[in-house]
Design a protein that fits this description.
By secondary structure, the chain is of the alpha/beta class. It contains 16 helices and 16 strands. The strands form 5 sheets. Strands 5-4-3-10-11 form a 5-stranded parallel sheet, sandwiched between helices. A 4-stranded antiparallel sheet has the order 6-7-8-9. A 3-stranded mixed sheet has the order 13-12-14. β15 and β16 form a beta hairpin. α11 packs parallel to α13. The protein starts with a strand and ends with a strand. The structure holds adenosine monophosphate and zinc ion. Zinc ion binds next to loops.
């Protein structure tokens, strides 16, 4: 499998550290509000990556943190804690906010068929781990205390910027527009590992530490949680592209300084979902959530299909018009499967199965090309092979795609059958169908007068007939 690696800036052949096994880490949500559908684009694409690796035979262990402390409202180490902001907004405690929005996040994931990672670790449950790693960083000379906080010293690294040829002055932490410079830092790119003195002294959650009562920085939590559960050599680290700098850059700095060797081999970054007016936001414009889409009548899996129709390394524009196109595509797929289910299934044709499956795998092996994988679904629907082969392929692909096309079609067919059965036991329907049958016979017998008479009787009863090549259909007004 070829996978684009932000660290090498090319598509690399994926080779895990240990044959047959994959360790995978995902930056989890900051649980101060609902996830917007942009956040969920990242989680959908990461879910596809995990499932495709499993589908390809790897034994995957995936770990995700929950950021319930330490994520500041600015990417620099200044600004208010996002959790505290959420708690103030809703007049609740930070832990109440964290619990509520963690549950809401997993409820959204369930609706979108996103699998829960094998390990989910809230940052507040790993404080000892953070203290252990920060202590070691200080002992190794990679961290220093200043003004009550512990900082990572980026000048101790031979290379700090990893993902891009960033110009340092464009990316200096703490000196971006509108952000105050932190005078404690020895170097502008240094970042906080542990706060004891913050401008925001009302921080609710604090822990005792060798450096005083305080709380961890955001970046240290992902390094520590990953190393705790996945060891010192990580295969894949995932996240949205905005996390590449400074978050992932800082994760690499502190993890490799702590470990003394290379930490993560592949960096998988999902590009952003934007709106026509630009960046997706939780505070301004329409706050686009899964629940909002549902309230407008959209099935969450249509949003999943919408995401799969484009490549994860291209930014994607959300509009209701684009989502409506995905609705049409989704309904068409289901309708095609409904007719497959009505046909005589026949036997699975192994050769056709293997050939069509190879197209699906070729798409995903090529840097997770999900839009071509969706095309492979259309190829199956159009193929000249038995319904049994097609249904077997669609069910097989759905392990990765998670679109529930076959179950949705089965449900639709069951509903059609139930409606037909209910209609069959209705005396009015029985009368209509008897008259339609009599009219068909009258036409066969060339008794057109009786046929017209029956049509008139039915019209009087509010029934409109339409003669089609598959027989007479009717609607009741
Ligand atoms: P957060 O809850 O802010 O920590 O973000 C959760 C995940 O969503 C991270 O992986 C972010 O990089 C990602 N993310 C944030 N905004 C977007 C967006 N507009 N499109 C796609 N992913 C995003
Ligand atoms: Zn992270």
């Amino acid at each position: 499998m070829l996978l684009y690696n932000s660290a090498t800036r090319r598509r690399d052949e994926f080779v895990p550290n240990e044959a047959g096994k994959v360790s995978m880490y995902t930056c989890g949500p900051t649980v101060y509000h609902y996830a917007h559908i942009g956040n969920l684009r990242s989680y959908i694409m990461e879910d596809i990556l995990e499932k495709y690796l499993r589908y390809s035979g790897y034994d995957v262990k995936r770990v995700m943190n929950i950021t319930d402390v330490g994520h500041l409202s600015s990417d620099a180490d200044t600004g208010e804690d996002k959790m505290l902001k959420g708690a103030k907004r809703e007049k609740k405690s930070v832990m109440e906010i964290a619990k509520f929005y963690t549950d809401a996040f997993f409820a959204d994931c369930a609706k979108l068929n996103i699998k829960i990672p094998d390990v989910v670790a809230p940052a507040t449950t790993c404080i000892d781990e953070f203290i252990k790693v920060i202590t070691e960083l200080i002992n190794k000379g990679f961290a220093y205390e200043a003004g009550g906080n512990i900082y990572f010293d980026t000048s101790k690294l031979s290379q700090y910027y990893i993902f891009n040829d960033f110009k340092e002055e464009d990316l200096e932490v703490g000196v971006r527009e509108g952000v105050e410079e932190d005078g404690n830092k020895k170097n502008k790119a240094d970042f906080v590992l542990w706060f004891t003195k913050s401008k925001f002294d009302d921080q609710e959650l604090k822990w005792d530490s060798p450096w005083g009562v305080g709380y961890p920085g955001w970046h240290i939590e992902c390094s520590c949680i990953s190393m705790k559960h996945l060891g010192g050599s990580l295969d894949i680290h995932c996240g949205g592209i905005d996390n590449a700098f400074p978050h992932h850059t800082n994760e690499i700095a502190q993890s490799e300084a702590y470990l003394g060797h290379k930490w993560c081999n592949y960096w998988f970054h999902v590009h952003h979902l934007n709106t026509n007016s630009g960046k997706m936001s939780k505070s301004s414009g329409e706050f686009l959530t899964v629940s909002l889409l549902e309230s407008k009548g959209y099935d969450p899996l249509v949003y999943r299909l919408f995401c799969l129709q484009s490549h994860y390394r291209k930014s994607l524009v959300f509009s209701y018009e684009n989502l409506d196109n995905a609705v049409v595509a989704y309904n068409k797929m289901i309708a095609r499967v409904v007719s497959l289910l009505k046909d005589d299934a026949g036997e699975v044709d192994r050769a056709a199965f293997d050939e069509l499956k190879a197209r699906f795998c070729a798409a995903l092996d090529n840097d997770l090309n999900t839009s071509l994988a969706v095309t492979a679904v259309y190829d199956v629907l159009k193929a000249k092979t038995t319904p049994a082969t097609k249904l077997a392929l669609l069910e097989d692909f759905d392990y990765v795609l998670g679109l529930d096309i076959v179950p949705a079609a089965k449900k639709q067919l069951d509903e059609e059958k139930a409606a037909a059965a209910a209609a069959a036991s209705d005396p009015f329907i029985q009368e209509i169908e008897a008259l339609i049958a009599e009219r068909a016979q009258a036409k066969k017998d060339k008794n057109y007068a009786r046929a017209d008479e029956i049509r008139a009787i039915l019209t009087d009863k509010g029934v409109t007939l339409v003669d089609t090549s598959q027989g007479t259909k009717y609607t009741i007004n």
